[in-house]
Amino acid sequence: MAKKAAVILGSDSDLETMRPCIRRLRSFGIGTEVRVISAHRTPAAAEAFASAARAEGFGVLIAAAGKAAHLAGVLAAYTTLPVIGVPIKTSMMGGLDSLLSMVQMPKGVPVACVAVDGADNAAILAAQMLALADGALAEQLARFKADMAAEVAAKDQSIRTMEEF
Ligand code: RP5
């Protein structure tokens, strides 16, 4: 059976930023569960979710959090599944605090971190991970890349024939 993806939000205030991630995963037909679990406010739930995730049929976890952003690292501590972190821009530091909290994980507990507010890329990376064991999903990703290339080629053609800028 195809593996599912989990999108874990540190707060419901992260939802608007993460909608493109959830939509992209579902556009690929990936079973996607969305939860609000906080590393600091509900640490026991974070441990329970990550510890059970593999047995529950998940293949990848996506964790979105702002400020101190320990969510991805805490989930990664309790699972051998790949964890993708999405640093959320929530503070006067413009998301740099969240980014560093996810990127600078100590040795042995990696988190794959995308750009600040990089929701769409988190979904695409998650799909690429799941596609390692799913040929149909790999074909969808190949079509997705071909469509992107065609869009850029069309823009290139359009700009080359533009007479006024
Ligand atoms: C983080 O603190 C959450 O992931 C969110 O990005 C930020 C603010 O949370 P709320 O105060 O809006 O619940 O833990």
Proportion of strand residues: 15-25%
Mean pLDDT metric: 97
Rg, please?
Answer: 17 Å
Uncertain ranges = none
Write the layout of secondary structure elements.
Layout: E1 4-9, H1 15-27, E2 32-36, H2 43-52, E3 58-66, H3 71-77, E4 83-88, H4 96-103, E5 112-113, H5 119-130, H6 135-160
Parallel strand pairs: 1-2, 1-3, 3-4, 4-5
Helix pairs in contact: 1-5, 2-3
The chain binds 5-O-phosphono-beta-D-ribofuranose (RP5).
5-O-phosphono-beta-D-ribofuranose binds next to strand 3.
What is the compact description of this entry?
The protein has six helices and five strands. It is α/β, with parallel strands linked by helices and 165 residues long. It has a five-stranded parallel beta sheet with strand order 2-1-3-4-5, with helices on both faces.
Can you offer a commentary on this structure?
Helices cover 46% and strands 17% of the residues. By secondary structure, it is an alpha/beta fold. It is globular and about 60 Å long. The chain starts with a strand and ends in a 5-residue tail after the last helix. Bound molecules: 5-O-phosphono-beta-D-ribofuranose. 5-O-phosphono-beta-D-ribofuranose is lined by residues 10-11, 13-14, 38, 65-67, 88, 90.
